[in-house]
Predict the 3D structure of the following.
Amino acid sequence: MAGYSSPGPAGRAEVGILGTGSSLPERRVPSSEVAGLIGVEHSWITERIGVLERRFATQDETSLDFAIDAATAALEAAGVSPSELGAVVLATSTADRPVPGVGVRLQGAIGAHGAAAFDVNASCAGFLVACEIGRGLLAANPHRKYVLVAASDTYSRYMNPADRRTYPLFGDGAGAVVLGRVPEGEGIFSAELGTDGRLAHYVSGGPRIPVPPVMPAPDDHYLRMAGRDIAALVREKFPDLVADAVKERGITLGEIDHVISHQANPRLVEEVARAAGFEPEQLVITGDHLGNTAAASIPIGLDVAVRDGRIRPGDTILMITFGAGMSWGRMLLQWPSGAPGGRR
């Protein structure tokens, strides 16, 4: 299906990531515990899916809580004050309440009182969608200096412990980045977003709105996924997204330093990356210890790779995402010389 594609002006980038942050629940849930709940062997999860453990929020923790911590860390890393933000864009599909949005409450909590603030719901693809919105906001207004893009999800609340197809996959957490202007030749080079709404039934969940006059069935709000169909779509689209990115930029696969993909399933990510021609050392994998953190998986991966020194100034990074809808996307960027990261 045709989608949205956005190259940088005249082939150069002017907006980049200046800082990253992430936040995770303290509660660790090993796959041995999950295996007991769903009635399978521990190895069935660790070998077939590749998830060793994940983090689950407590009943008192919300997507907002993790977003606040991730945003604060990203602002600190970028050296940007909340008062300097022109906008706060929050990607989530697990808001604790529909009104007001999580982004609005995040803006208030961090003190970015002069910034526009709103939510984006593109499910697991939300972070890249929010980044493109943030990039557009900076391009549209030269007086707007910085945009905070955060992604936070708590899918453990929507998982059926009896469903072996979904329950082992997900974990909770948040990631955030600060977008700002960077020198020519650095930052975001291009992005592509696509959706095929005819496949919306592949992933669904949550009670119907408005709330019915009688209480919904006990499992009505649980997430449902057509796992095989989703895997087939990922296998189809992943190589196309890679090919489009390298062709548009005129580079080779070997010139991409890091591939940060949505962590739908670590084994599937490794499979499609290998089939596309990437080496294992080019991949940033977090799903083995965090599970599928939905929209937060890519910014968490970015933050992990920045803080452990893998991402360095001048590195080329390809981010690829998939989400309910079904939606997909990619973003190619160069890590700015002034952003935090390991040194060459």
Summary: The chain has nine helices and 14 strands. The longest helix spans residues 227-249. Residues 22 and 260 are 15 Å apart (CA to CA). Residues 9-13 have pLDDT under 50 and may be disordered.
